[in-house]
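Example noted here:
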Amino acid sequence: MNTPSLAGVDVGYPKRSGTTKQSAANLEVIAGGEDIWGDRDEFHFACVPVSGNFELSARLVSLTMADLYTKAGLMLRSSLEDGAEHAMLLAFGDNQPRNKNNGGIEFQSRVDKNVPCSGIYPPQPLPSQPDFPVFYPHVWLKLIRCGDTITGQTSEDGKCWRTFCVHQQRLPQSAYLGLAVASHHADQTVKAVFSDLNFSSQP
């Protein structure tokens, strides 16, 4: 495995622009953007072109919140257009109830260009305590692509991993992979700090 060098780009022309700052210790993303959802996205993306199968993991050390739906996570995206197909394993800033989720981890995708996103949620009915909570700074995320199978995993220590979902989606062999952050507030930015990025290409 190795640490990829990521370049930051704003997707969807958010009102508040974002930045990516990568050092030997961590990667800091400042992001605006109304959301990564619906049929178009606004967010900041620290990414690198990839081809074929891969495994990417990262520790999300912290995430400030401008909204209940502020989100950050690992994304595979077909292009940098605002309505592009994508798959994303994400974390929210805390474990407040959201829609069909009472924990901080979720998975979402857009399976066709310019169509609404859909989410994958923890098994229903929801238990009283979340199955997939977030307790910063102990939030580890992993995204694995093998053909058309995309697996999202989480961990509290970067060693013992739990599978959140196994998702089937055909995305281009050549795509963009990286860290996606959205404020969910047009007039505010948020900060996500990542560390321990590890990337490997798979046969």
